[in-house]
Design goal:
single chain; 412 residues; alpha+beta; 13 helices; 5 strands
Length: 412
């Protein structure tokens, strides 16, 4: 900061500071000018006391009226269009008007010189501390007021040299105190602004850092939840979602089915056409699966060329229909240009919930066993878990035997 003005050395930073305090300066200037106009107008009473009804009184009243009106107009203008950074002259104008009016009082009321000295001291301090302005402007306006007052006093009033020296020393002391008080205030305000700006920058950086961390967390979460190649749920994320759906289905006593999908002859695809084409096959089949399922169904990549699907509120027969439709759509996929002699097929193993004790691991094991049976029997087929089929057959037999027993009781 400048040692004499208290302003920032960097013009851009100084301009930013003035723009920042502009609203406060406008409010304080309007209030200060309104009070100054009121006080200056009230001293018309003392004019009458010293001059009585005379030409000097009329001149004083006219001057006070002009000053009061000028201050009020300037207060209005500063409040509306005042700009502390670009229109400093508008803020400085009231100082020059008030200083000129105070100087003119001396020849019109020379007999009140002792009280006018006090008025000049008070006005000088008001220039420095009450009416917002830049320090160089205030210093020049105060110097104009003090020198003008001394010149008028020496020309109009016949004052001894000792009294004149006392007045000079008093005005010098007033200016020194006012100057350094305003200089300290200017520096403190700018230091506060600099600290606030630094805090704002740090807060902005902190917000950016938090946003960046949240973005990274979202990306990490996405990587953890999504398979990078196919965009399906990762194995761990699928298990969480499927477990929640299974528990809800068991709580609501609703059906729940699950099937495993395996791409047939995938190893030979990788060995013959390369892993890039193998990745294209997995991506294509994953897209087909997503389009074939409902929004509430959950699909994930279980590992390698295996996919797994959870179907809440779906009976085994409906799950088998979904699996057969999906299998058919895979076989209808267009032949890839680099693989003209290969038709894509999948084998699907299905399992379903039998009771409330069935857990997700058991379902996956049953579906995997059914998938193994399908692959062993020649692939490209849909197989329902044998345990599910045996359980269904046993329950059907039990219902049949129960019906025969009930019929026999009725006959007897």
């Amino acid at each position: 900061m400048n040692r004499l003005t208290g302003q920032f050395h960097e013009p851009g930073r100084e301009a930013m500071y003035r723009r920042d305090i502009a609203p406060r300066v406008r409010r304080e200037s309007c209030l200060a000018l309104s009070v100054a106009a009121l006080v200056f107008g009230m001293f018309a009473i003392s004019d009458y006391h010293y001059t009585g009804v005379s030409t000097e009184l009329y001149l004083l009243l006219a001057m006070r009226l002009i000053v009061v009106v000028s201050c009020l107009i300037l207060a209005f203008l500063i409040g509306r269009v005042g700009d502390y950074s670009r229109k400093s002259w508008l803020h400085a104008l009231p100082l020059w008007i008030l200083a000129t009016a105070i100087i003119l009082i001396v020849p019109l009321r020379p007999e009140s010189l002792p009280t006018q000295v006090t008025a000049v001291v008070v006005a000088t301090m008001a220039f420095y501390l009450l009416i917002p302005n830049l320090l160089p402007i205030v210093a020049i306006a105060s110097l104009y007021l003090n020198l003008g007052f001394l010149a008028a006093a020496m020309m109009v009033a016949d004052i001894p040299a000792v009294i004149a020296l006392r007045i000079v020393l008093l005005l010098i002391m007033t200016n020194v105190v006012g100057f350094f008080a305003l200089l300290r205030l200017e520096k403190l305000q700018r230091k506060q602004f600099a600290l606030l700006q630094e805090e704002r920058v740090q807060n902005h950086q902190l917000v950016e850092e938090i946003t960046h961390r949240k973005s990274l967390e979202a990306q990490l979460r996405l990587l953890a939840e999504r398979d990078e190649l196919t965009g399906l749920d990762s194995r761990s994320h699928f298990m969480k979602r499927a477990q929640a759906l299974l528990l809800r289905s068991q709580h609501d006593t609703a059906p729940f089915s699950l099937f495993m999908i395996d791409v047939d002859h995938f190893k030979s695809i990788n060995d013959t056409w390369g892993h890039i084409h193998g990745d294209r096959v997995l991506t294509s089949i994953a897209e087909t699966c997503k389009r074939s399922l409902r929004p509430q169904d959950v699909i994930g990549r279980f590992g390698g060329e295996e996919f797994i699907v959870a179907l809440p509120e779906t009976h085994l027969k409906d799950a088998k229909m979904v699996a057969e439709r999906l299998q058919r759509k895979v076989t209808e996929l267009p032949v890839m240009e680099d693989m003209p002699d290969h038709r894509l097929t999948v084998t699907i193993g299905i399992a379903g919930v039998l009771d409330e004790e069935t857990d997700l691991a058991t379902l996956i094991k049953q579906a995997d066993q059914a998938l193994y049976v399908g692959k062993h029997d020649g692939r490209n087929r849909v197989v329902v878990s044998q345990k599910v089929g045996d359980e269904i057959s046993a329950r059907a037999m039990h219902r049949k035997e129960r019906a025969i027993y009930e019929q026999a009781k009725k006959d007897t």
